[in-house]
UniProtKB/TrEMBL annotation:
Polar residues compositional bias, start-end: 24-40
Short name of any one Pfam family annotated for the protein: Asp_protease_2
Official protein name in the record: Uncharacterized protein LOC104778663
Gly residues: compositionally biased ranges: 1-17
Domain of life (superkingdom): Eukaryota
Region of interest (Disordered), residue spans: 1-76
Organism: Camelina sativa (False flax)
Length: 270
């Protein structure tokens, strides 16, 4: 299952078998395949991106939807946790802004090929679970979750790092799951998270709950890394100063986490 998906290196292209430069950081490699097909343009048409604006809804079937199911939410890091602030933040998407300046990173496009999907069992419905370095510790069972607006860290994980409760920043926040159940966090903590040779100071909401995953890296971390995850290929790609880095997910660990979740659910219902 995991054979053939060792994280070989990070560099230009991020492909398997790539010989990284001497100063490049060797990291696991995972990639995803996106095959976008467009209609062949007519002779009188100019080539260009699809004529679709941000926020525009795709065409729907004639029958109206029966409802909408949203995602796991928590207070965003870029505004206050109030209805007024959140409404103002929602309106800001209608205002065009200049892209933020970033350090000099590889400008190669991030793409995925069928090679990236090798070494895993198909078909699958496994989440993307990776390993990263937090502080001085290599942390396994880290979920990449594009549906989480906060990064989450389990208290049991912090305890193993030697962190004490008084080292947490006392900023409790309400985290709401997809089922609408709310849970208060213990506080916040900032850790240096390193992946593929790139380090980002990352803010986590700390929760005291039986851990299925040691941590959840949500939208804030994914955005800060300019990363593109792929569920199909169970991998994550992002630019570095030396090229495109690819981190492979661990399908076996992802399924072990499913077993842990099932056992916890069974114990709660007993």
């Amino acid at each position: 299952m995991a054979s053939g998906r060792s994280n070989g290196g990070c560099g230009a292209g991020g492909g398997r078998g790539y010989n990284a430069p001497p100063n490049a950081v060797q990291q696991p490699v995972n990639q995803a395949f996106v095959n976008l097909q467009e209609e062949t343009p007519q002779a009188h048409e100019l080539l260009g991106p699809p004529k679709r604006q941000r926020g525009q809804n795709p065409k729907r079937a004639n029958s109206p939807p029966r409802g909408r199911i949203t995602m796991i939410l928590g207070p965003p890091e870029d505004c206050a946790d109030s209805v007024r602030a959140l409404k103002k933040r929602a309106r800001q998407v209608c205002t065009l802004r200049t892209a933020p300046s970033e350090p000099s990173l590889c400008s190669d496009p991030i793409s995925f090929t069928s090679e990236d999907a090798k070494g895993i069992q198909h078909p699958h419905s496994d989440p993307l679970v990776i390993e990263v370095t937090m502080g001085d510790f290599n942390v396994e069972r880290v979920l990449i979750d594009t549906g989480s607006t906060v990064n989450v860290l389990c208290w049991q994980t912090l305890e193993k790092m030697g962190v004490t409760p008084d080292q947490l920043k006392p900023e409790t926040r309400t985290l709401t799951g997809y089922d609408g159940v709310a849970k208060m966090s213990m506080g916040d903590v900032k850790l240096q998270v390193r992946a593929g040779g790139v380090t980002r100071k990352t803010k986590f909401a700390v929760i005291d709950a039986p851990p299925i995953y040691n941590a959840i890296l949500g939208v804030p971390w994914i955005y800060s890394m300019q990363a593109v995850p792929s569920t199909y290929h169970l991998c994550l790609k992002f630019p570095t100063t030396t090229g495109i880095c690819t981190l492979y997910g661990d399908q076996r660990i992802a399924r072990v986490c499913s077993v842990i979740e099932k056992k916890q659910r069974t114990a709660e219902n007993a």
